Amino acid sequence: MTLYQNKYRIESARCPTWDYTSNGLYFVTICTKNRRCFFGHVVDGEMQLSPMGAIVAEEWQKTPQIRPNVQLDAWVVMPNHFHAIIVINQPPPVETFRRNVSTEPLPTDPTDPTKSPPTHQKSRLQSNSLGAIVGQFKSICTKRIWKSGFPDFAWQPRFHDHIIRNEEAASRIRHYIRQNPQRWASDRHHRQK
Fold first, then answer.
1. Distance (Å, rounded) from C-alpha 161 to C-alpha 87?
2. Considering the chain, what is the average pLDDT of its residues?
3. At what angle are helices 130-147 and 51-66 packed, to 10 degrees?
4. Please, are residues 69 and 91 in contact by the beta-carbon 8 Å criterion?
């Protein structure tokens, strides 16, 4: 942990050498805060969604409509977490030709050309990255859940990801996701009461 602005923060668990905007399959697990069972219950090996769980499922299914570079693979909403395989498939870059385009920054004050524009702190999340996709999903789910009358809902601040590097691993993870409700009693995310 490092100290930043007088607060300790946990270092990123992301692979520092990996471009999380690159094409590929990513296994993601997102947990609720303190692993509270907001999303429903498992009954006889089947997930029974609560109204909050239904919101999560609906919003996940909207993801490819919002982000055309994303495809959904196997996924499941569990009582206190969510598992999914996200497929990122960026379109190839479009080559454009520019003519008479200035690369010089515009001055802030047109009466004083020596003043430079204000600097803006760049977001740590890259557009269309795995973190941006998950962040947007968590945000819209939270807003809808709060608006539905559940103001105590919260996600854990981060999420777990695994870069899927081959079809054998993808197959194994798909099986794990599909079987998750049947194994709920022994799941590491299952919080005993």
1. 13
2. 81
3. 140
4. yes
